Amino acid sequence: MAANPERTRLRIGSHLFLMLLLAAFLFPVAWALLSAFKPADDIVRSPLTFDVTTFTLDNYTAMFQDVPIGQGFLNTAVVLLLKGAATMFFAPLAAFAFAKYQWAGKHLVFGAVLITLMLPTIVLIIPLLLEMKELGWVNTYQALILPGAVDAFAIFWMRQVISAVPDELLDAARVDGCGEFAIFWRVVVPVIRPGLAGLGVLTVMNIYNDFVWPVVAASTERMATLQVVLSTLAQNITGNRIGADYATVTGELLAASSVALIPLLVLFILLQRHFINGILAGSVKG
Amino acid sequence: MQRHLLRRRALLASAALAAGAPALAACGPDIASDGESGGSSLLKAPDRTEGEITIWDRSGDLFEVFEGVIADFNAKYPDITVNHVAVDIDAKLQNTLITGADVPDGVFLDDAKVGGFTDYLWDLSDVLAPYAADIAQQKLDVNTVAGGVYGVPFDLDPGLLFYNATALEAAGIDVAAIATYDDLLQAARDYQAAVPGSAPIHLEQSAFLGQLQLEMYASQLGTSIADADGALRLDTPEFERILTFLDTIRSEGLGTRAEYLTPTDIAELDNGNQVFYPWAIWFSFAPQQVLTETAGDWRAAQLPAWDAGGARSGAMGGSSFVLPKDGPNADLAWLFYEFLMFDEAGYTAVWGPGDVYPEGLATSIPSYTPAADPAKPLYTEITALGGQDLWTVATEAGAQIPGGTPTPAWWAGAVDYLGNNVQRMLDGDMTPQEVLAQSSEDIQTNLVDRQ
Amino acid sequence: MTALAAPPATRRAPRAGRGPRMRRRLAPYVFVLPFVAVFVAFSVYPLFFTARLSFTDWRGTGAATWVGWDNYTYLLTNPAFWSSLGNSAVLWLLIVPVQIVLGILVAVLLNNAKLRLRGLYRVAFIVPFVTPLVAVAQIWVVLFDQRYGAVNAFLGLFGLPDTGWLTTSAWSKPTLALLFLWKTTGFIVIILLSGLQSINASIYEAADLDGASKARQLWSITVPLLRRTIGFAVVLQTLAVFQMFAEPFVVTQGGPYGSTTTAGYYLYNHITRADLGTGAANSFLLVVLVMALSLLFVRLLRAKD
């Protein structure tokens, strides 16, 4: 790093550019986190100011009192655990079959993966809902968990990652008498661990933030996930808010959003190295 | 992620799979066979008073109000447990009714939406019969479809002229003299002359609420966008007159264009630029909870009339309670709503002073006329309205609302056409005649003809 | 790969001579079975259902009436259907090119291991990705309010007039596009970073020696070498933009004047009106469109090889 004027200008320029983007990217979230501590009326009336003297926890107390957020967390946790586990186990397994085996029908089944990737959720909402009705699954955990339980993007991505595992490694294991599943479990999984870590974080985020299907599939408070709880709250503001206490609801919504955001944010910051390196693991020469 | 990102062959295979789907199609709804003619959909009053009911309400202030009434209900019916939940009704009701799973026993619903769900709802004409004569005609009418009544009418929402008394007085304008909409225009011109830069009359910018307000003006003239048989009647002199009035406000620069109680709207109300707000009674929520600078300055009066001596109010919005047929204890839910709406202890608890609204639920009045007695106020004088007796103004206005027609199932869908075109007119891009002709044509082809 | 077929297992005595080989042939079928089961149950079945539904008039209750191609002809001759596709196309134009350019710039900068604050930047760019959309929607409404929003307040400092970001059909799409960019660019940056990792640093050293400027290196070395990753990102985002539903649902409800009624949102409109037959027909048209677009992009990528 000698005093090369082009270099220096470039370095300053890139930091300026990145800082500007950083501000733009963080501002809305910071605004939400801070505004949740303002009196509800002030959020609506003067959204841009922050007066330390009026700092309040009212939005939080009101929210915890009015909103079944604990139940939301519980349901999200159950879905996260089961659906996440299904994707984390079955997606790499399927990806292994696509990446390392030749078999009749492979293209057809991979086509199915691509179709799933391309199907807008909204397209399937009504038929899926009627299917849940036939199965008697409306307002059950299975309805929240099973559709999309083996995520197509995860398969697609893990296929790239597993392709990079040298065939020699697998053959060596076979020579050692390993069964096919044992090869996956004892050879492939340890090798792709960084990729799996990335997949884990991504899966958690996707499931945690999913709301189009859960809003439809969970109509009772008992089954409402965190995002369903949030969207119920937001409905008062985004819908035609006839008579609704706009300010109070906005305050509660920001408090609830903050509570929902923080675990994920903390998880992400703690795991960001794994996540990013994990995704980068997909790049190991194809 | 470098090689074989997407395999063309796989994609082609998947395309073939999808193309084959229509041919296979063995699953789907029954096609024209059973025809849902089963049992009667007429709800009978229960002969039991024991059980659990699930009641859906929107979250927010009304939820809290109803929550507070449950204890009073239980004083009368101790063996009925009320499971009261806050639900995103717009997003959930339809799907729940379609699947028939965990269907609630009673649901709070906008009047404008009742017509869309009648296939799933109990016909309440039998249980409502003892009260029907005492329910505001307009509320009964909006809930009536093909002879059945599908909602327990909740609130009556008379349109009122809200105005900033302090600001208008300072400008020397006498609101009591405003008897017709022409007078209102003149008062607005005078106010603008006194306060340069002001834009005295609210012009609604949300397509949905704009259409709702349009129906308020129409209700005053005894009409609505659909007649009793659900046929469109938009391209009429009445609607042209209303739109011309709104277009005049726009062309003369007398209107503040904003969405109801968004930050822009609030600020313009609070700084004295916007001083006339012809709106349903639920606007009273603004001075009570939203406005700060001008909270005590606002008052409500009856609306101006279209012609001297004409009706001084029209209905805008409002909600009812519907009872889904698949709700296991809908008959008990009826007891709940009967108590809420027609029992003095019930309606007093709903509209009277309480924890949520210390001065009473002054955002609506009961649709049950014995409860909406000008002589027996349920709520007290409203501080945010300078101590005004809103009850008397509202109940007297409510009594003037002409009868209505059932809201057609496609009403909300019409917002895409009529609601939007009204906004285009307020942008200066369409004339009132164009709005009516174009909207009529679009609503007919896209909504009425596709029912 | 078959050429490298494993020699017969020798060390441990095989249970039967053809056991391992047979198991190896069957294994992939077993491995994809869970996916296939979920796919058949929750994608194929609903798709067939939708297919049949699309030829009927059904309001969600009672019997459906067979209407033949009526729903399709209604949609295909309806300007509102085409304008929903047009809206999605415009959003695509507003989002994808910007996102790719921005993504490449940021990824290239973050790829420099010597960059200070690299961890901070990485976290910052991915934060929007983890923020619940419902909360973001409220933030957007407040920030982009015409008269009192932060955005207009900021632009006012430069003497610019107030803009109706969410209230005029001219600006609603860019505002929605911005939300989408904000929410997803971090993810695209990471995908592009993964592509950059596989470029050999020595290429740049050689270019430095030749005196090529950084800008020139970006254009003539990085972009061509990243072409496949860029293509992948483009396909992913194309799918995402044409499926976009939640963003207009929570921010604009398709308005003003239907200007943010995307293909997905238009479809939802039929559903809310209980016009499930038309909704199903619209679903099929949308699926066909999305698949056609994907094929098109794959073909374009191949053509450049």
From TrEMBL, chain A:
Which keywords does UniProt give here? Answer: Cell membrane, Membrane, Transmembrane, Transmembrane helix, Transport
Coiled-coil annotated residue ranges, if any: none
Q: Where in the cell is it found?
A: Cell membrane
**Pfam families assigned to the protein according to its UniProt record, in alphabetical order:** BPD_transp_1 (PF00528)
Annotated ABC transmembrane type-1 domain ranges read: 73-271
Q: Tell me where it mainly resides.
A: membrane
Q: Where are the transmembrane segments?
A: 73-96, 108-129, 141-162, 183-208, 253-271
Q: What topology in the membrane does the UniProt record assign?
A: Multi-pass membrane protein
The record's similarity note reads: Belongs to the binding-protein-dependent transport system permease family.
Q: Which PANTHER family match?
A: ABC TRANSPORTER PERMEASE PROTEIN MG189-RELATED (PTHR43744:SF12), ABC TRANSPORTER PERMEASE PROTEIN MG189-RELATED-RELATED (PTHR43744)
Protein name, please? Carbohydrate ABC transporter permease
> Per the UniProt entry, what species is this protein from, by scientific name?
Glycomyces endophyticus
TrEMBL record, chain B:
Q: Which PROSITE patterns match?
A: PROKAR_LIPOPROTEIN, TAT
Question: Any stretches that span the bilayer, and where are they?
Answer: none
Can the keyword Transcription regulation be found in this entry's annotation?
no
Q: Which Pfam families match?
A: SBP_bac_1
| Subcellular localization, as worded in the UniProt entry | Cell envelope
Q: Taking the first listed entry, what is the main subcellular location of this protein, grouped into a coarse class?
A: other
Q: InterPro entries, per this entry?
A: Bact_solute-bd_prot1 (IPR050490), SBP (IPR006059), TAT_signal (IPR006311)
- The reply on keyword Transport is yes
UniProt signal peptide: 1-25
Alphabetically ordered keywords of this record: Signal, Transport
Entry similarity comment? Belongs to the bacterial solute-binding protein 1 family.
The family database entries (PANTHER family) matched by this protein are listed as: ARABINOSE-BINDING PROTEIN-RELATED, SN-GLYCEROL-3-PHOSPHATE-BINDING PERIPLASMIC PROTEIN UGPB
Can you say what this protein is called?
Answer: Sugar ABC transporter substrate-binding protein
Source organism per entry reads Glycomyces endophyticus
